[in-house]
């Protein structure tokens, strides 16, 4: 799979999830940046990722707060955001916060790759 050297920022406080997602996306040819709390996302977007993947439940700022912040700022509002969560009834909240897509945990890694690819194609 050719990613065109796109950069993806993953933010989740579960290191095992971040590691497994990073391994799959790295294997697919993406450059992957990893952070483990919502507060670090705001600093990390200075690296201008092509896509941000946020868990809702994280330390610091939660994924919904981070998404709202990214979508309010002119320099980051164009970056697609994929929100993921194991919580129930949060998909609507994710889209209300400005997410471009939502993925329920647990998810299949093929589904993750498909969603990432679709979001990156929309911004190409």
From TrEMBL:
Q: Which PROSITE patterns match?
A: RESPONSE_REGULATORY
Q: Which Pfam families match?
A: Response_reg
Family annotation (Gene3D superfamilies):
3.40.50.2300
List every position bearing 4-aspartylphosphate.
55
Entry superkingdom: Bacteria
GO annotations under biological process?
phosphorelay signal transduction system
Give the keywords, sorted. Phosphoprotein
List each copy of the Response regulatory domain by range.
7-120
Protein's name in the database: Response regulator transcription factor
Record the organism: Mucilaginibacter straminoryzae
């Amino acid at each position: 799979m050719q990613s065109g050297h796109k950069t993806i920022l993953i933010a989740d406080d579960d290191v095992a999830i971040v590691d497994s997602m990073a391994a799959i996306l790295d294997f697919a040819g993406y450059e992957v940046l990893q952070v483990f709390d919502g507060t670090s996302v705001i600093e990390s977007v200075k690296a201008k990722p092509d896509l941000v993947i946020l868990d809702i439940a994280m330390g610091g700022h939660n994924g919904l707060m981070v998404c709202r912040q990214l979508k309010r700022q002119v320099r980051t509002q164009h970056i697609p955001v994929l929100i993921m969560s194991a919580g129930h009834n949060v998909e609507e909240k994710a889209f209300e916060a400005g997410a471009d897509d939502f993925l329920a945990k647990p998810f299949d890694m093929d589904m993750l790759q498909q969603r990432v690819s679709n979001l990156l194609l929309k911004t190409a």
